[in-house]
Design brief:
The two termini are 29 Å apart. The strands form 8 sheets. An 8-stranded mixed beta sheet has the order 12-11-8-6-7-14-15-23, sandwiched between helices. Strands 5-4-17-16-18-19-20 form a 7-stranded mixed beta sheet, sandwiched between helices. Among the domains are: 328 residues, 3-Layer(aba) Sandwich (Rossmann fold), CATH 3.40.50.12780; 123 residues, 2-Layer Sandwich (GMP Synthetase, Chain A, domain 3), CATH 3.30.300. It has 673 residues and is an alpha/beta fold. The chain is globular, with a radius of gyration of 24 Å. It has 21 helices and 30 strands. It binds ligand 6R9. Ligand 6R9 binds next to helix 12, strand 24 and strand 25. It is an enzyme of class 6 (ligase).
């Protein structure tokens, strides 16, 4: 199934596609796609890069020494003397005898270094309101919020749920928790009352921080009613803190307190306490293939070391001059590591945008880049493909000359989307860093270094310095260059998940039982002839056609390389003769007209790009694709459609009407030659 975040704990159990059996067969993933384009780093960027090629050598010679050095980029109350304790694998301890305060590292130390006047956050509300928050102001806000949480009875070791829109208070709330040693559990602001309730229960959260609402597609959208509904199911939630954002009418309960009141009466002084490096920092829920979301636990010192280092290395952040913008929601791991902890620990100036890319117009992102002079941009392939569909003329209207590094995360980026990003947004001069990582890995694992790597469209390329990743076959043997199989991580890394909250056994079973001593990421991957890694999508999505494992990603990329296609989602549907047959759903680019002739062209196009085995049996032009709220395509639902089955759980879809639209397309399905 597509990797998504299920709305409720316990609900949404997925079953394997009938007839498909175990898609991880003895046939390793076929290596079909060829990509010859290469792009050298710009000379000036390479010359001044934060991290140069030596880092790989240095980390290879002494991996733990390398991470110990990166840990010294942080400010410790007690410097660690131990780097890694791996005496009880896979339960790692990093920097175990060190002590630090994560919020101090993200806030106070920049003020102490004389940078209190630097803007930490340029907030841009969807309606066009804006607010600049300096590091000195951030320190006051976080300190007041920390004092407020203490007044409400939150203590070190407690859990606080956060359910907020993309507003500065979300950052303040997370850092306030970190400051007092309470773990936050951020629940994405689009989730239902059931999802909130399940997460409150699983983590036993004592306080919930929410808002009346947020702005979404030009309208206030309420948040508090869902929290009220969820909280009413327990007597364990002591307080609900409510940020006033939209001013809409809300019901008020005894346990509710206004954020502005409870923080407004606090001192702006709060002395951060130092916590053990292994003190819990946050829990973030991610779905499993079997329904119940997993509470991924991250701790302090190792997590911050890697979030901070990778942000510095992969974005080449120059905090004095760069303006960074990550468009992810704070409710996803990307928002945690690359809006809050990575950039702020590095003293970055960043943009925080509340709304959607097409409100009030389809150029909103580029208008924001122009307004703030954004130099480092981090977004997702789904957004890039949407911009491709909207047309090249939209970004062309804005001044994007401030950009210098472009990042991608969340899904494999198709080579054509990569090229579009490079040409239309980066104007051919910005390196693209395709960053592979997961909620579980906490921080980036496989990505180019912008001043070092000769980039290849569509490949995340190689493990970052200090990270060990490879591709193995079914038996766990490393595949040779040119081979395909499953991505594994072969050595522990500082920001690795420590366990699944309350369920060590599930942690072992999910990640560590498939290959002895290796972390199983659940993604298909291949190595090219240079040994560079290409991600091929979730293992559960891999198709088995006439005995060959074929990746959805490669077929999708071949489709997107056709000038008429903006986006594609491919699934394997049960088929009497071939086991599974490839069915492709495609969104056409603005100008392309749907016709039988085009469908035939697209099928042939894939056949000639990848070989006859990968030629889709059916190609269905559709207006939209089902996506999770973090933008990942939900292929599981498309499989249901392709196999004429009742749809499975649709609660994680951004827009469930999409499925009705797609279903109406089925009769016009074009079939085989
Ligand atoms: C950071 C994040 C993790 C899964 C991961 C993989 C996919 C993420 C990717 C990518 C190819 C990339 N994924 N980045 N696939 N190339 N650059 O997205 O975390 O929400 O936990 O999802 O996303 O399938 O296993 P998370």
């Amino acid at each position: 199934m597509a990797r998504d975040t299920t709305d409720t704990l316990g609900a949404g159990t997925d079953t394997a596609t009938p007839g498909e059996g175990d898609v991880v067969s003895n046939e390793s993933l076929a290596n079909l796609l060829r990509e010859e384009r290469r792009f050298a780093p710009p000379a000036d960027l390479a010359a001044a890069a934060n991290v140069k090629a030596e880092a790989y050598e240095q980390a290879k010679a002494d991996r733990l020494g390398f991470w110990a050095e990166q840990a010294r980029r942080l400010t410790w109350a007690t410097e660690p003397t131990e780097t890694l304790d791996w005496s009880n694998p896979p339960f790692a301890k990093w920097f175990a005898d060190g002590e630090l305060n994560v919020a101090y590292n993200c806030v106070d130390r920049h003020v102490e270094a004389g940078n209190g006047g630097r803007v930490a956050i340029h907030f841009e509300g969807e309606p066009g309101d804006s607010r600049a928050i300096t590091y000195a102001e951030l320190k006051d806000e976080v300190s007041r919020a920390a004092n407020a949480l203490l007044e409400l009875g939150v203590r070190k070791g407690d859990r606080v749920a956060v359910y907020l829109p993309m507003i500065p208070e979300a950052v303040f709330a997370m850092l306030a928790c970190a400051r007092i040693g309470a773990a936050h559990s951020v629940v994405f602001g689009g989730f239902s009352a059931d999802a909130i309730a399940a997460r409150i229960a699983d983590a036993d959260a004592k306080v919930v921080i929410t808002s009346d609402g947020g702005y979404r597609r030009g309208k206030p959208s309420a948040l508090k009613p869902a929290v009220d509904d969820a909280v009413a199911r327990f007597d364990t939630v002591e307080h609900v803190v409510v940020v006033r954002r939209t001013g809409q009418d809300i019901a008020w309960n005894d346990r509710d307190v206004w954020w502005h009141e409870v923080t407004g009466r606090q001192s702006a002084e709060h002395t951060p306490e130092a916590f053990d490096a292994e003190h819990p920092l946050f829990i973030l829920y991610t779905s499993g293939t079997t329904g119940k979301p997993k509470g991924i636990l991250h701790t302090s010192g190792g997590y911050l070391t890697q979030a901070s280092y990778t942000h510095h290395a992969v974005f080449d952040l120059k905090p004095e001059t760069d303006v960074y913008w990550c468009t992810a929601d704070i409710g996803w791991v990307t928002g945690h590591s690359y809006i809050v902890y990575g950039p702020l620990s590095n003293g970055a100036t960043q943009v925080l945008y509340e709304g959607t890319p097409d409100t009030p117009h389809q150029g909103r992102f580029w208008e924001i880049v122009q307004k703030y002079g954004v130099s480092l941009l981090y977004t997702a392939p789904t957004a890039i493909r949407t911009f491709m569909k909207w047309g090249d003329d939209i970004p062309a209207k804005f001044d994007l000359s401030s950009l210098r590094v472009l990042g991608s995360v969340g899904e494999p980026i198709n080579p054509e989307a990569w090229m579009w990003y490079r040409e239309n947004i980066g104007k051919g001069k910005c390196p693209i860093v395709d960053t592979w990582w997961q909620t579980e890995t906490g921080a980036m694992m496989i990505a180019p270094l912008p001043g070092v790597t000769h980039t290849k469209p569509g490949s995340a390329q190689r493990a970052l310095p200090g990270i060990s990743a490879t591709v193995v076959d079914d038996e766990g043997h490393e595949v040779p260059d040119g081979g395909g199989g499953y991505l594994v991580l072969t050595e522990p890394w500082p920001s690795m998940l420590r366990t699944i909250w309350g369920d060590d056994q599930r942690f072992l079973d999910t990640y560590w039982s498939r290959y002895e001593g290796k972390y199983f990421a659940g993604d298909g991957a291949k190595k090219d002839d240079d040994g560079d890694i290409w991600l091929l999508g979730r293992v559960d999505d891999v198709m088995l056609v006439s005995g060959h494992n074929i990746s959805t990603t490669e077929v999708e990329s071949a489709l997107v390389s056709h000038p008429s296609v903006a986006e594609a989602a491919v699934v394997g549907a049960a088929d009497e003769t071939t086991g599974q047959a490839i069915v492709a759903f495609v969104i056409l680019r603005g100008t392309a007209a749907e016709s039988d002739d085009l469908v035939a062209q697209l099928r042939n196009h894939v056949g000639s790009a990848l070989g006859p085995i990968a030629k889709p049996k059916r190609v269905l032009p559709v207006a939209e694709l089902p996506k999770t709220r973090s933008g990942k395509i939900m292929r599981r639902l498309l499989r249901d459609i392709a196999e004429n089955r009742e749809l499975g759980d649709v609660s994680t879809l951004t827009d469930s009407s999409v499925m009705d639209l797609i279903q109406t397309k089925l009769p016009s399905a074009s079939s085989e030659d």
